[in-house]
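Sequence only, no structure available. Ideas?
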Amino acid sequence: MIHSTFHISPTGSDSAPGTEPHPWRTLHHAAHTVKAGDTVIVTAGIYDDGRVAIHTSGTAEAPIRFIAQSGVEIPGFLLTGDFIHIRGFTVRFFESALKDESFYGIEIRGSHFVIEDNRFIETLGAGVFTSPHSARGLIRRNFFHRNVLSCIEVHGTAHLVEANTIRQPIQDHPSGRKTDDADAIRFFGTGHIFRGNDIRQIWYGANIRDAHMDCFQTFRGTEDGDPDLTTDILIEDNYCEASSYQTEDECGGGVTMERVGSADGTFERGIVIRNNIFIAPYASGIHGAASFVSFVNNTCICHPAFTQYNTIALDYWHPDCRRLNIQNNAFHHYTHPFYISKPAWDGSILSGNFPPPVIHFYSHVELANLTDIVMTAPATESTLGANLARVFSAPEPDSPQGAVPVFSNIPAAPSISPAPISPWVKRIYFANFESPLSGWHTQGDVTLSPAAPNVDGHSACLQGDSRLEMGGISAITTRHENLIIRLLLGADALDETESL
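Reply:
I predicted one. Tokens follow.
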């Protein structure tokens, strides 16, 4: 079978043959024309012709490919066919999207799709949405920014979501659409893997009212075809920075779950959360029926500014929570490492966590601190320092094409070292840097020193709006801290502006 390559340009015509010298004008024409094995190359430009629906299927050997050159902007796609690849597009909000029946950037109802190296900007709903009838898709190396309700929402079976860069999901769209939450990734169904994603800027500000914002969240399925339980999920090697607090119910979280379990009654086919970095007031919470949850080899950090509140690393309080596997995690600066229901405690595995936690049991009436349990601790303070060094020495990705997952090579278990904690670790999570960095102060939205900005011999200019207030003193944001800490760890001299 002969496969064709077609071209599209803002200056083309749908009556043309679709060749490079004589391109088509619209993606709609291409979507209705292509067959298995065809490739469509789209020239830079704005194509505000509405959502593009592709109903034709490719095959495993001959997928249908839509490839954008740099600078192609569209309202979105609807994919009902199988074996369709979408690469290189900027999917953003257009006024025409307000009339569309779907809020999503790319809505996928087919299987064996590839969505890679795209940008999703301020869409009315999730940048990428997969239906319960979709299966075995790949969502990779995309950039998401200010998507409403969530950036990625996954239903269906056996999708791989990896190496995506996610920034600042929002609750309400500037056009007027209001929702009840703002999460980075929502997941439902079975067999999914979420690996090596870089999630940051989960914070309160414009277009956020009262959301409980999570890097990952699941609950009872919302779509026809969702199973009763979400099962067989792997969340590994991700970086989650949701360091924001408004109230105890309105704050940043790592992984929040309910209606989760195992596909075969084993931990291996349950919910496995391992080798992640969580910087959030709540690293993980269970708010409904749940079983066979493994939380292993994770580093969990809470900003000290929030320790005046009731922050909890693992909030596994629900009475219908059963069979937990919590091992070799490091917790830093939390008011309480664990809250756990008595039914969850019975029959669960808890060992090797640092610091050895005080376990608080929930009763149905009130919280009762029944016992202190001391455990062995393979995860140590030195482990925490090493993991933090790995966090803050990684550069901020500039684009989806250039983004590299921060933690693609995290070892299977934390390393154990008798060495004392490094001095710089004590300087990381202060509410502001006036104390640990002598002479630094805040002028408007710029944090700087009285003379040339300098940290341990390295120069830096930090600019952006502050997100924390303590006693009237503006505290610089976590992203500012990241830059300073990279300098403290010995990075090359920097002289740059970081705008938020």
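The first helix runs from residue 27 to 33.
Hope that gets you unstuck.
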